[in-house]
């Protein structure tokens, strides 16, 4: 039972193999070892939702997941949404068009959470959108524009 | 906000996990969904010497609805229950309460058995477990035992689990024909911990209550069954006027026996008020649904 373990995982389609301290969170691993700093840490105890990533296709708080638990997993972070040439993902574009961000700190978590919702339920009601986003906190622009952005994607292709 | 240093293992079988847990000393801990344990680690409220991660033990993800009983393994996530149409039909109280837990990312990871083992007084699962008279299946390296839900919760965040033991399964009986159920809670926003919540089940025949179950969360140091209020409903005719009177009496009874704390979320007297109001609402919901059975 070592304090360090070798893990192999896919992040945004690219495979990484690294030694990690077993107490390192997936969030810190993504930010500090992979330099993918789009995943943000707000509260580090599962309340704010800023660090939400897709873990094997399902949203998860990366601050409440150990990096070592992601051995063999497929992770998608906010950097995995847009195209390599910088073209925004349709959901990112919807946030842009609806002014659904101000400082942007919470945005990566909102995008990942909303993406999972729209994949499961392509035509959500406003109530369903609000409920799905209830675990993500925004402290500046407020929720109305974010809800509008997600609702504007109803029935639209996600890729 | 970083955990203290710990040892970690992720065994492939339950036997290996129980062996590691038994040898891991007093602070060894099971890591399942991590939605309660990881915050406690990050805040260093919990400082285990060893984490036994059970996420690689496929057999623990078993979720098996059967004619008489629903079996929920230690790795079954809240989201797994909600995605199962047979559970929504056959165990509607469990499904209704689960839909109020946390947020999508929390429900994707958090486990039912983990929530029961954590025994937060405001959590939904302990209340449902009690209301349904479910069975807790417990294992250690040396023995296996079963406890009725009523013997499991001891105090705030404290259960009958002993050192080296873990919950491997929960068994929820199917409630009798003619039973309606309802779970209601008040929380600051969807998915937040309940300030108070009530689970109720009424088994009816020809308008007469055969049995009543009421469990309350969020107000005492553990979830509990309101037995006196239940007894007062038994054999009562619950027609419109009589039902309203009986439910109001049950609400007064529950409000009288609770002993809520004051905290930043709500005062003791507000929680007491809610316990009564929610008892009435949960019973009304249960009765309306029993009619459809």
Describe the protein's architecture and organization.
The complex is a heterodimer of chains A (159) and B (293). Chain A is built from 5 helices and 5 strands. Chain A is of the alpha+beta class. Chain A has 2 domains: 4-79, Ubiquitin-like (UB roll) (Roll); 90-151, [2Fe-2S]-binding domain (DNA polymerase, domain 1), CATH 1.10.150.120. A 5-stranded mixed beta sheet of chain A has the order 2-1-5-3-4, covered by helices on one side. In chain A, helix 2 (90-97) packs across helix 5. Chain A is globular. In chain B, the strands form 4 sheets. In chain B, strands 4-5-10-6-7 form a 5-stranded antiparallel beta sheet. In chain B, strands 11-12-13-14 form a 4-stranded antiparallel beta sheet. In chain B, helix 9 (227-233) runs antiparallel to helix 10 and helix 10 runs antiparallel to helix 11. Chain B is globular, with a radius of gyration of 19 Å. Chains A and B meet through strand 4, helix 3 and helix 4 of A and strand 1, helix 2, strand 3 and helix 6 of B.
Total number of domains of chain A: 2
CATH class type of the largest domain in chain B: Alpha Beta
Question: What is the CATH fold-level name of the largest domain in chain A?
Answer: Ubiquitin-like (UB roll)
Helix content of chain B: 25-40%
Give me the number of helical elements of chain B. Answer: 11
CATH architecture descriptor name of the largest domain in chain B: 2-Layer Sandwich
Number of helices of chain A: 5
Order of helices and strands of chain A: EEHEEEHHHH
- What CATH architecture of the largest domain in chain A would you give? Roll
Topology of chain B as a string of helices (H) and strands (E)? EHEHEEEHHHHHHEEEEEEEEEHHH
Radius of gyration of chain A over all CA atoms, rounded: 16 Å
Fraction in beta strands of chain A:
15-25%
Number of strands of chain A: 5
Radius of gyration of chain B: 19 Å
Full CATH superfamily name of the largest domain in chain A = Beta-grasp domain
Largest sheet of chain A, in brief, is:
5 strands, mixed
Please identify the structural class of chain B as seen in this structure: alpha+beta
User: The CATH topology of the largest domain in chain B, please?
Assistant: Uridine Diphospho-n-acetylenolpyruvylglucosamine Reductase, domain 3
Per CATH, the class of the largest domain in chain A reads: Alpha Beta
